[in-house]
Amino acid sequence: TEPRRVAARGAARRMARLLGEEVGGTVGLRTRFDRRVDPARTRILVVTDGVLSRRLQADPALPGVSAVLFDEFHERSVPVDMGLTLCLHARASGARDAAALAPLRLLVMSATLAPDLVEHVSRDLGGAAVVRSGGRAY
Q: How far apart are alpha carbons 7 and 87 in whole angstroms?
């Protein structure tokens, strides 16, 4: 959806600016209607949940990917849950082992995720560590 594309563009733009670059260098972007990636330079690729799901369906081994980060996970939706499910399936299926790739790392982030859901997600990720950080609301 358009809000997801806008968020992805904004996140990619912010990360690239922090590096003193434009999107398409170290930080790339891929949405349904936008692709700014340099295969030789891009190390961080910001994608929408739909792009991630399609990529996982096409090749669950996710060659060229070492980690997938789900940000704002509290904004639950079917596409986001599908992306996480497909990532978990990719890890469990052995597709990365067959392709001689390192295990896929998953990171789920949220500033406002309910405590019971945090424990549930941690359990689904195989007992993943939970990092809590204090903060303030403005």
A: 21
Distance of CA 20 to the CA centre of its chain: 22
pLDDT tens digits along 45-87: 999 988 999 999 898 888 889 999 998 888 888 888 899 989 9
- The Cα 19–Cα 5 span in angstroms is 21
Q: Which helix (H) or strand (E) holds 15?
A: helix 2-18
Compute the distance between CA of residue 46 and CA of residue 68 in angstroms, rounded to an integer: 10
List of residues 6+ apart from 123 with CB closer than 8 A:
none
Record the pTM: 0.84
**Terminal alpha carbon distance of the chain:** 28
